[in-house]
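Researcher: Checking consistency across runs. Here is Molybdenum cofactor cytidylyltransferase again:
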Amino acid sequence: MSVCGVVLAAGAGSRFGGPKSLASLPDGTPWVARAVETLLASGCSDVLVTLGAGRGESAALVPPTATVVPVPDWAEGLAASVRAALRAAEATDADTVLLVLVDTPDLPAAACERVLGAGGSLARATYGGKPGHPVLIRREHWASLASSLDGDQGAGPYLAAHGARTVECGDLWHGRDIDTRPG
């Protein structure tokens, strides 16, 4: 299996008060850089980072080990970011994408590795039974998933309709993304 990791980071972060692609950990590490590191550590051969809101500033935070994927229609919602990532992944040799969110900077590589090891053509991490990320999508689903996406809806409905495997990762991490700034 050849895996292309994808960091979904194109949104405006309205509840957060700005693009999450510009956020950093307390030690100064950009969230986007941490996500790229996590995907590479879990075995991804390529990493794509979707950027939309704040793209100019955010692109400077993306490590050279990743490729920026511009999402000009980012304001349409998460669907635009996933579609752009899938189109960009088509140009790689990967047969699988592994999607993560930029606002999960403490996602452990072990959760990515567990989802990658689950087998099947569609899989997603769950945390205490609650759906989360990462999400694994094999190439045979990319076109049909892309055409099914709309608005701020991600891959969830497609995954449910196509019997995606669920991979419990609650023993590794809490599974929550960061929607608001601390404090």
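Researcher: Does this match what you'd expect to see?
Model: One thing to look at in this run: The first strand starts at residue 3 and ends at 9.
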